[in-house]
Structures are given as structure tokens and as C-alpha cells.
Here is the input.
Amino acid sequence: MPQTGKVPLKIALLGPAPPFRGGITQFALMLAKEYVRVGLEVQMYTFHRQYPGILFPGGTQTTEFASLPDIQVERVFTPYRPDTWKNAVGRITAWNPDLVLVSYFLPWFAPSYAWICKRLLGIKIVCLAHNIDFHEKWPAADLLTKKFLQHCDTIVVLSEACLRDLKRKMPADISSRAILGFHPVYDCYAENNQLANVLKEEHTLLFFGLIKDYKGLDVLLKAIKQALAVLPGLKLIIAGEVYGRSDKYLKLIRELGLEASVETHFRYITDTEISGFFQRSQVCVLPYKTATQSGVIATAYSFGVPVIASDVGGLGESVVNNVTGLLVPPNSPEALASAIIRYFREELSADFSSNIPAFVARYDWRELARLILES
Here is the structure.
């Protein structure tokens, strides 16, 4: 695989991009903005359609973005339509970038990515690996990932946990190409803040983001039930679309008698709404059962909101226990309830919030963008 041996002047980003919604799109967009800011040419190449409906029960796959930089976005292929892949190669090759940065987070994309990247001759390929070990079971996941990664010159991982997964699952000739990056803090949502005067609500927690089984909302609801015995004024806000149906969570809320203590927004939360939920909350809770890293933590920190999280995957790399939040064992409503009670009884919010800026300053988009360029 060729190396250009020079600082890239033209960067193509391949993968989720506007109008496709989600954290992977937002991550790519933040990097694109940073490269534009330093004077590089950037284009984003994305999908005609990302998934067939059967693989995306959450609703619409696209959304309106509050603000977009002056970056060209081309919709050039569909991952499950091999007849479209040649078009992606043609469009990227015609633009002739120095570097192609590929967002990888599911084996679903591996066949199309591998086919496309193999044919981008003379162009450096960098994989931005959000996941290597996947939350859901995918047939032949490791084999598919290997088939794609063998066409990448560099693999940038965003946590030590992801780096360990790469070394454990991939042969040395692939894992030796890895460099350790990090997940910077999202500052874009504060820029889109239309609710500047929203006040914190006492004893209020937030569960935010796309809701899948591995994120442990059921564990959190059981913990809230226990914590209410000590903190009767406790309130939980749930803001995010359920991947599938919300019925099971609504049923659990009823069974636990939490209707008066839980506020539900089971839908996609737009960029302009995000700030309001974080501003109302004194802490963001991630009761995940498995994890690599999390854009939710990056979003919470952008609003100065501390985090209570399970100590799984790379979450412990982003939440400094007793400094920017609290870490608890996964799958334990009892441990999570104890942490919630302690957080509010000891009034930890102000101290933890004041510690967040120093932590955040070490992990910004400029530094990650530089790391990728020099890889």
C-alpha cells in the first residue's frame, strides 16, 4: 500500500456524513471542519442509502443539520449495492485526494469499504476505527473487519480499550499499523444552543442518545427505583430514540412505579434540542453493559455536566473517578443506585464540573486532526 510521504493537502472522508444522522456523522463533520479551518481542501463521500429498513428499526436515517460548513458532500454509493461501489471509486479518484479517512464502526460496511479502498490506487488510506469489537453479534465480524483493514495504511483508534480489541482480534501485520487517538469533546451543540437561560433542575439525571440493549437503560431504571427510597425528589430524563420499540421500557417504568419520576422523550433529538436537556441535568448517566468510547460523554463535558458511568471498555478513560464523575461496576442496579445517592448527598456536581475544563483541554479536535495527518 502506497504512502504519500507528505502532509496531505486534500482530504476525502468516506462514510457517514450529512444528511445521515448520528454520532459517527458528527465526529466526521467535526474533523472536516478542523481541516478546513487550517486551510486544507476537504470533501465528504457518503451513501445514497445507509441501511435497508430491516436493519434500521429506529425510524428515518437522515436529519436536518443546524449548521454546515462549506464542505462538499457527495452521495456516491450504497453499502448493500455492489453495483454502486464503482461510482464511489470513480468520484474519489477523480478528485485525487492525498488521504482518504474512512469511518469504520460496523462490519456491515466492511465489504464495500474493502472493495473501494483496494481500488484507490496511490492514495493513503486511514481507518478511523470507532469499534473493533461490536456491541451486537455480526456473522463473520472479525473476518469482514480484517478484509477491510488490510487495505488501510494506518488505523486510528479512539481508546486504549479499542486498541486492545484490535491487538486481540487482528493479526500483527494489521494491528501494528494502529495509533492511539482519543474522542474530543463536541463543542458544536453549545454553538447551536437556543436555550441559554435554561436552569439546572435539582436531583435530575439524564440518559441521552440512541437506546440499544447494551446501553443498560433497564439497569438505570432499577437503580432509580432503589435511589428514590433515599432521594424521593430524584428525577430521570430519558432523551433518545429506541432502536426497535420503546414498549419494554415503558412497561418497566410502569412495573417499577416510576411514572412520576421519569420523563421520557423516546425520539430522535435534534441538534438544537440537545443543549436544553444537558442544561437541565446535574449529571449524565451511562449504565452501559459494554462499550468502547462514548460521544455522549464528549457531549456532556461540552456543557460541563459530570458523568456517572459503568467501568467498561474505554469509559474509564474518559471519566476520571471522583474527579469528573463516578465509575461503577456494570449490570449492578445496587452499585449504580449507591453512586447516584452519593453524588447528590455529597453535592459533587459543582466540584466535578469545575474539574472538566482541565480534562477537556488535553483532548481537542485540533490535536486529533494533527495526529491523523502525521500518522
Summary: The chain has two domains: 10-181, 188-361. Residues 188-361 form a domain with the Rossmann fold fold (CATH 3.40.50.2000). The chain has a mean pLDDT of 91.
